[in-house]
Amino acid sequence: MESEYCFQHKHILGIEELSARDICYILDTAESFKEISQRPIKKVPTLRGKTVIHLFFEPSTRTRLSFEIAAKRMSADTFNISASTSSAKKGETLIDTAKNLTSMKPDIIIIRHSSSGSPHLLARHIKASVINAGDGTHEHPSQALLDMMTVREKKGTLAGLKIAIVGDISHSRVAHSNIIGFTKMGSEVHICGPATLIPSGITQLGASIAPTVEDAVANADVVMALRIQKERQVDPLLPSLREYSAFFGINKRLLKLAKPDAIIMHPGPINRGVEMTFDVADGEQSVIMDQVTNGVAVRMALLYLIMGGEER
Ligand code: CP
Question: Cα(270) to centroid of ligand 1, in Å?
């Protein structure tokens, strides 16, 4: 049966649309691509002649650069558009922008946008494949895939692990994609954060809400801290960052409650001293830089697989 599996997705819009088998296949493919980035000449011809457009309407360091590095390492031609330099500034709608881009015959459009559902809208209006690089507070599928790759690499499996996710769950597309992804792969996800930052209905995605941060972290295999997204909070939802840090910041004392070989993760960018202390972020249990390294491999795998789907 294994040999009959075929990756069928033209777009990567969310972890929601992927099966456990799809996720496993993407992670296996990413592992096989990781070696390319270790070579003296980090380039393969796999996507030669393909055009990849990065359409970023929100700031990004890791996602944008690693998608661009991934595409370039596979010999694709890459182009960048940002909100500040695009005609969106002059009032052009996303659909009009998409139609104009389609006229230039791109193969893949990678979009980050503050509105949840933008990549899905784009996918309905253009011929190219669409990858969601983060849409509002909805999903960030490539981040969840690189997170799952990093955990699988360090722990050997995803099944049966306890994953603690601490922080601003309400505004975090990373949390949403990771809850869906890790639970599909057989992990137990325990979330924790200020009550004002835990959305109602989150347990329907498969996560449990821990009553205290100590409960969330106790005996965890993975502790993932999330950024406090002040820019998405319409009303002040926290008394102060200092208070958040005192109650929910990951420090060495809290970490002692996790398994001795627990790993520490953060999708970045980190507010050091808020979501975690400096010694935790830079400590020997931190795999934050491994997450960034794996981001390139996962994004190479996504570009490769969606183009393979198109050829089929
Ligand atoms: N993790 C993440 O999405 O980082 P960037 O915002 O820098 O892309």
Answer: 10
